[in-house]
Amino acid sequence: MYQRIVILTGAGISAESGLKTFRAEDGLWEQHRIEDVATPEGYWRNPELVQRFYNERWQQLQQGVEANAAHRALARLQQQFHGEVLLVTQNIDNLHQAGGSQSVLHMHGELVKGRCPKSQQVFPLTQPFGADNLCTCCAIGQMLRPHVVWFGEMPFGLDRTYDALAKCDLFIAIGTSGTVYPAAGFVEQANQAGADTLEINLAPTERYSQFDFHRKGKAGTLVPEVVEQILAGQLLS
Ligand code: OAD
């Protein structure tokens, strides 16, 4: 029976909720240049363009994108598993919370929040990013920036994640292409800890050979199955 599980999710887990992934043929990075919308330099060069990119994603969440069976199953795992579960997501959507997860480590930040560029205080996003969406922490209100991690910035919660990886006995990566570090290196950390490693994805990824086990198919179908097996003490071993 497993005791300590680390789960990493990526854009693929939200695909069945209707959100685009990054690297599919019609994915976000086919339509936008990373340098323009996902780097600090891009933001300071053209804040309006970056704001539009994140405002569109934020509006989409406001318009009622719903969690799917995979998000809900992971919430069930967190509630019912006898041991520890750390859920780390690269996603900036709020669908894990919508699916019932109480504790989610958003290593790349959250779409539903903005941040003061001076004090780093984080605010819930109640209106789109723009010249009139200012922080209330500074004497002169600063324009809130998206509370997301851009390329060249440090992801959140790495100490906690590496600590959990060093102690885990099961690591599962769901719906992530494994192309962006540091998340792409988590499987290696889990292997070094002696954990079993499982990849759930529509297709084999670049990390395929680093995983002990694979389930190929849609997260919405496979994650509930895997969660039931874990809870019944029947997964893998
Ligand atoms: P990608 O778009 O790189 O990969 C999505 C993965 O999900 C692919 O491997 C697909 O095969 C898989 N997939 C798609 N639909 C699926 C489904 N229904 N069920 C299971 N798997 C499915 O997205 P990420 O790996 O999340 O970072 O991307 C990582 C990071 O790259 C993002 O967090 C973002 C991006 O640049 C930043 O912006 C900092």
Overview of the molecule:
By secondary structure, the chain is α/β, with parallel strands linked by helices. It has 10 helices and 9 strands. The chain has helices at 12-15, 28-31, 34-37, 40-45, 47-62, 69-80, 95-98, 158-167, 186-192, 219-231; strands spanning 4-9, 84-89, 105-106, 109-115, 122-124, 145-148, 170-174, 196-201, 213-216. Strands 3-2-1-7-8-9 form a 6-stranded parallel beta sheet, with helices on both faces. The protein has a 3-stranded antiparallel beta sheet with strand order 5-4-6. α7 links the parallel β2 (84-89) and β3. α6 (69-80) packs parallel to α10. The longest helix is centred in the N-terminal third of the chain and has 16 residues, at 47-62. It is globular and about 55 Å long. The model has no long low-confidence stretch (mean pLDDT 96). 2'-O-acetyl adenosine-5-diphosphoribose is lined by residues 10-12, 15-16, 21-23, 27, 38, 90, 108, 149, 151, 175-177, 179-180, 201-203, 205, 218-219.
